[in-house]
Amino acid sequence: MTNPSFLRRTEGFTLTPFASFASVFRVIPPTMPSFASASAFARSLSVLLAALSLTAALPVRAQSPSPVLDKIRETGIITLGYRESALPFSFRDDKGQPAGYAVDLCLRTAEAARQKLGLKDLKIRWVPLTPQNRIPAVMNGLVDLDCAPNTNSLERQKQVAFSVSHYVSTVRMLVRADSGIRSFDDLRGKTVVTSAGSTGDRHVRRLKAQYGYSDVYAKDHGESFLLLESGRAQAFVMDDVLLAGLRAKSREPSKYVIVGPALSVEQNALMLSKADPAWKQLVDQTLAGVFASPDAVALQKRWFQQPVDARGVNLKLSPSEEVVAAWKHPSDVVTE
Question: Which of 11, 25, 261, 272 has the most CB atoms in a 10 Å sphere around its CB?
């Protein structure tokens, strides 16, 4: 079997044959040329979200079976959200393009939508999101699918829907190897950082009084790691796989260790609108098909066990028993 070019940057393993990626997709660059900076984009996005929320009081027309698929059919564009520093799930690669395990799963879903709609061509518009603005962006239809390690929780299910789980991680903390920190008992009087709006956010707030540390909330994972790296924070609480990715990508990975007990087990999934069951069904069917095929192991090796960039960053992580179980029995059910 020859390797098709449906997925970008997936050399080295066999994929389910699709039509050539170049022939069916035209990628709209992820950069936002109309904004001078990421912060300017974030401010503009907030304004747009606020404006969209005002439409809630307007009369609503009858909904079609799948508003998302109808929009994709009419415009020939699918809009996908991604992260800039959530390696290996969703990040900007050396060329500034979205890449990662969750990004590849979204590309598979985009191809499934193209085939279902009988489109000859489908453009992809990439929108960079943060843990803070991802849920409003999905709720207001600014993205059709968020391609990241979103934690599926009962609280979040009140606002958005989640695909079947694509990975399973645990929340722990990253510290400097020479810090002497090995558990939360060692954090008294120190500063703990996490990314605002992330799963780590609720744990840091919940445990603050018990362990007597100061808390800081960064805009994204890259900024959180920078605070740890610069010494302005002594611990970074987040999903262990994301911490491993940030450590591997740092200038001196050996200076950092992941420590402490697992604060929670997280079901990671793609995020989408809860108002479109037909779209969710297509997303879930696509992921279940990937997980039932050799592609699941191939994608795991590509993003977790091989170099993911020009620097040779390699997480060297094998799939856990929980991850294999999630692939074997696809589900969006969570318990807390």
Answer: 272
320 lies in a domain?
yes
Asked if pLDDT for residue 69 goes beyond 60, the answer is: yes
Residues 51, 56, 57, 63, CA torsion sign: positive
Using CA atoms, how far apart are residues 49 and 96, in angstroms rounded to an integer?
Answer: 26
Q: How many CA atoms lie within 13 A of 280 on its CB side?
A: 17
Tell me: the pLDDT tens digits for 114-168?
A: 999 999 999 999 999 999 999 999 999 999 999 999 999 999 999 999 999 999 9
Tell me: do 33 and 89 sit in the same domain.
yes
Beta strands, E only, 152-228: 161-162, 167-176, 191-195, 214-218
Q: Are residues 178 and 294 in the same domain?
A: no
CATH for 218: 3.40.190.10
The pTM of the full predicted model, rounded to 2 decimals, is 0.80
Rg (CA), the chain: 20
